[in-house]
Amino acid sequence: MLFRPGALVAATMLFGLPASAEEIVRISGWGGSEVAIVNGLLTNVLAEKLAEEGIRVKYEPVDGDYSQFIINGLSAGTAPDLFYVDTFWARSVFSAGQAAPVTNDVSGFAANLLTAFTYDGKLYSIPKDFNTLAIHFNKDIFDDAGVGYPSDDDTWTTLQEKLVAVNKSLPEVDGLCVVPEYARFGAFALSTGWSPFDARGKTRTG
User: Cα separation of 85 and 184, whole Å?
Assistant: First the structure.
């Protein structure tokens, strides 16, 4: 969640600073299942605190192209006061001076998560959550192929050898299936030492 510059006062008040008059704070996020969660948070969890602080929240979920909605809004000066931002396009907002730095105490957040939202030595957003990625495999397929199971002792090379062996024994079985988006396969690719750019700073094609 980050703040646009003009909303710094309203944003900091959401974090517990006293308000002398009612402030209307516009917040935005993805639509879909997020809507019920955020509405429940505002209505059942934060309502009393917000009222004490003199804050009225106007929630504006977006069902379409969310990142484009935010970027267009920032350019036009109509963006919400607080909004979710993805790590993959956050820095384009930070570097353009379209967000206000976070000034509240963030000692309760994991330092490595804050790094993703830090630009030029300043923190511009706070992480709302994180999750892990893992590899799952079907034991029956490895048993049928006569190949040992993947284990924590595997390197990428030995894992690849096992997957190739499975495919050779069972040609109808693909070795590995990864969701075709950077947020999913990127973590696995980067852990092998792969880089999306070559020595000249050009995007790799393979």
Answer: 17
